[in-house]
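Memo to structure team: turn this sequence into structure tokens by end of day. - J.P.
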Amino acid sequence: MSAPDGSGAPARSVDPPLDPRGVRSAAGLTTVVLALVLVSGSGWLAAAQALVFALGAFAGMRFAPYGVLYRLAVAPRLGPPAEREEAAPVRFSQTVGFLFAAVGALGYLSGLTVLGIVATAFALVAAFLNAAFGFCLGCEMYGLLARARAARA
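Reply from structure team:
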């Protein structure tokens, strides 16, 4: 996405830069929730996780429930982060997570359990990679898409 001024520069995210520790913390909570979805087969829990993703993706990262929890309960006990990361790639990954969680919820709730399992498992793998290793799969996809867009322009 280019800047509205027509300069061709990437548009800045509406969210301020994020504390990467908060992003990983949120991914850890997401990992736990999605693992519980797989163990329980609960479409309603998958739908709740889809809502969590939707808030971050569409309302902005400052409204992401796990991020709010981190900012209120964890961040005050830590020193300032050594670095910050742009919010746009994280919002993109929240959008991808929303899509997978929503498909998972629909699968479970409609009786298409295999669809629910597969979609939830994909979201779980992505969340686990971020929580355990700091590798944000959605952020990497965002970067690839941005480079492809720039090459086409």
